[in-house]
Structure formats: C-alpha cells, structure tokens
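Memo to structure team: turn this sequence into structure tokens by end of day. - J.P.
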Amino acid sequence: MLKKDIPRIAISIGDFNGIGPEIILKSLSDLDLGTSTPVIISPKEIITSVLSYLPYDLDVNYSDDVTGLQSGTINVLTFAVDNMKLTPGIQSALSGKAAMQSIEQCIHLCMNHEVDAMVTAPISKEAVNLAGYEIPGHTEFLATQTSTDSVLMMLVSGDLRVALVTTHIPVKDVSEAITPDVIKEKVEILSSSLIHDFGITNPKIAVFGLNPHAGDGGVIGKEEIDVITPTLKMIREERKDITLHGPFPADGFFGQQLHKHHDAILAMYHDQGLAPFKLLSFGKGVNFTAGLPIIRTSPDHGTAFDIAGKGVANPSSFKEAYKQAVELANKRLSED
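Reply from structure team:
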C-alpha cells in the first residue's frame, strides 16, 4: 500500500557504470522510510549487482508497475535493458540509454503526480550522446520534456544558494548570451523560487559582473556598463519586493564573506559560480532546477568513473539532494 500523505521521491539511476547506483543505495541505507517513499527507476540487475558488494541488508520492493509500489520500503520500478552488462568505469551507449530512460520515466511520474519530486543521479554526457541523445545536460533536457521555456540552475548548501545566468555553453559564447531579457528572466525565476520554494520574504540577491573586477569601469570590458548594470536598475524599479546588489567582482565576493549577507548569488556563467560553491559546500551541495513545474534535485558532482564499482564513493551530496527533494515536496504538499 502506497501512502499519499508522505512524499514519494523518484530517483533516476544515472549512468550505471558510474557511482550513481552506489551513492543511491548508500544514501537510502539509513533513511527513515516513515517520512518519505523512495522509488528508484532502474534495471533490476543493477540494484542486485551493487547490493552484492555493499554491506547493507536493505528491504527492497521490485515492481514493474507503479501499482506495485509500497510505503515503508525502498521501491525499485524496473525496466528491461537488452544485452544488459555492468562495466564499472566504462562509458557506453548502453549505460547512456538506460540513464535517459530512467530520467524520462521519472519526469513522467512527476508530471502525472504519481510521485512528488525527483532526484537524478549523475549521467555522462558522452555516454548519453553515444546512445543518440544530443543534449547539453540534465537541466536543458528537463526543460524540454516539461515544456518549460526557461529554467534556472541553482546550487544549494544550507543558506548558500548560487544560481547561473548561463549554464552549459562554451565560455566564448557567454558574453553574447547575456542579454537584458535573459538577466531579467533569471532574476524573476530566482526570486520566485526563493519566495515560494524556500519561504524567504523580500529576498536579497547579489549579482556578479562578467569581467575581471566587474569590468573596472569599462577598462576590461563593457558588459557591466552596457548590459548588466542598466538591467539591474530596471529590475529594481519594477520589483520592490526584492533587493538586488551588484554587479560585484566575482573574485573578491566570497573572500569578503559577502555571501553570508545575501539569500542567493546570481553568477554569469558556470564555473564563475560553481567553483567557489563547491569549495564552500564541502561535498554536500545540491543542484536544484528552479522554474520547472516539478521538483528536481541532484548531487553537485559527476559520475566519478575512476572509483565506480569499488564501494568507496561518498554519498553526502546525494543524501542532501534527497533531503532537499523531500523538504520541497513536503512544502508543496502542505500548500495543496
């Protein structure tokens, strides 16, 4: 029997030749199954194989249909993979295809309200491309599959929240991609998420510049003068319910502990925001996709093929991603 009063969390298996299956099972090994119901979407062989080298005696319910899911246990919603073969550390079209099939099923379950949130284990973009999927990343695929025009990649660790204006694009294309409309759109999604998902009234947001020293008055670049600063001024005039500071030089911001005085940071590109975030989050960061009609979180690391299958992967980030999904799902359930 599947209880409806506690959140049901779908979990994509990720690339099964990476550490995804291991960190999932490690994370769920000490989970209080009375407060949420995990539903792993995976070929059965993956789960049984990984459990064979982990020191856990887990209560697992295997089912090939959602009607067979149960509360109070770890559920595995199984699907078949032809010529199934587990090869830890090796990227393959087989593992890439299975990873995407699992994600697609998670999205379907969320969109049909059969689960309340989803947590995605790491995928390999190379393996996914070998399988015939041409996607830049999870975030963009989720937006397409849920018919969402714009989403925001946000990394969360406690009160530290770092969001990105641009995500998985080459650095050489970042400047051109940063337009007034895009900045305004990302600020809108970020502020809405801070208010509605995280319960922060009148959020305070710090915005980074693009260039070193935020352009140094135009000496090192004019994007701050021509695009970022005037856009922030326009948003301030329109949105009296949020506080926008910036554009800040990115290099000194964290060193001056300014992140402790803001509810979120909006960085201009991937590494500008994520490099300091991962340093400060001590391996417990969570990737949250804001702007979707569904809840999606993930750990803030990759597949770690070099240690796959060895039983030594650290599940801390995945545990936090699962806890964040449960917290957000509970908030939405309480509002229904």
